[in-house]
Write a structure and sequence with these properties.
Blueprint: E1 10-14, H1 22-32, E2 36-40, H2 43-48, H3 51-58, E3 61-62, H4 70-84, E4 88-93, H5 99-102, H6 112-136, E5 139-149, H7 163-185, E6 188-194, H8 208-218, H9 226-237, E7 248-251, H10 262-269
Parallel strand pairs: 1-2, 1-4, 2-3, 4-5, 5-6, 6-7
Helix pairs in contact: 1-3, 1-9, 4-6, 6-7
Length: 271
């Protein structure tokens, strides 16, 4: 994307871990579009990832933050505005983690302490972020906040476990806070429901390869890759979408509106 759609805009990008992360691609695309931004992730994730390489490429500062900590969130917003020299114009919330999935716990035998952490990290953190920005008046008029979600918020995918509940809450927060932020400060809040994507987090879900291939065979356009999602995020951060808010927008090659494909029918017909 060569157009400078985000020239002069300032933001925060959550969740870039390595070059497989959607947030990593979003950072690259925002940089190409002329934006300046800070990168953030949990301290432990920063130690595991390759984010320094991305920061150098995009001339971005890294600010560690635990999204479950109000203290860290306050510090992140304050430091970001100080580093960037003013209010924020866009934020990407690309945060999600389930200990139950990581530990292989089935949905019918969840560890509830793990589940509380899942909901706090993957969903409640979005409200914490928006509330912190609201109280600090940290987002410029007509700013844009986007969180990444998945269709498991609407449909059942058994191995996605309690992340489905987390995504449902995330989308509800976008609608609810989107109302208040729109009425109060002309700020847009939306979620993007992305195709299954070969990220570090996605590939940790049991049976992900088969699931990825299934969605790809159903979607008329095929699965949307991370780079395309990043382009879409740039569009959502730009002034071209300034009247889009409280929406959950499917970026999935048509999967969400397709019942069955000829490829899938052919496989079942041969059984």
């Amino acid at each position: 994307m060569s157009h400078q759609l985000l020239e002069g805009k300032r933001g925060i990008i959550f969740g870039a871990l390595n070059s497989s992360s959607i947030a990593w691609h979003v950072a690259e695309k925002c940089h190409e579009a002329g934006a300046s931004f800070v990168l953030t992730n949990a301290p432990i994730a920063l130690r595991m990832g390759e984010i320094n390489e991305l920061a150098a490429k995009c001339n971005a500062q890294i600010i560690p933050a635990d999204v479950t900590s109000e203290e860290d969130m306050n510090a992140l917003i304050d430091q970001s505005m100080e580093v960037l020299g003013g209010k924020l114009d866009f934020i990407l919330h690309s945060v999600g983690m389930s200990l139950n999935v990581r530990k292989g716990k089935p949905y019918t035998d969840l560890n509830y302490e793990f589940m509380h952490k899942t909901l706090d990290i993957s969903a409640i953190s979005f409200h914490r972020l928006l509330q912190t920005c609201w109280k600090k008046d940290a987002i410029s008029d007509w700013g844009s906040v986007v969180a990444l979600t998945y269709i498991a918020a609407q449909r059942t995918f058994p191995d996605y476990s309690e992340m489905a509940e987390a995504k449902s809450i995330l989308e509800s927060i976008a609608r609810s806070f989107g109302y208040h932020y729109g009425k109060g400060k002309n700020v847009r809040v939306n979620t993007i429901s992305q195709s299954p994507t070969m990220t570090t987090a996605g590939s940790g879900v049991h049976g992900f390869d088969a699931f990825f291939n299934y969605a790809d065979s159903i979607s008329p356009l095929g699965n949307a890759p991370a780079e395309a999602c990043a382009d879409f995020c740039v569009a959502m951060f730009s002034d071209l979408t300034r009247y889009v808010t409280q929406q959950n927008i499917f970026h999935d090659g048509g999967f969400s509106n397709t019942g069955v494909s000829t490829e899938a029918m052919a496989k079942f017909a041969s059984i």
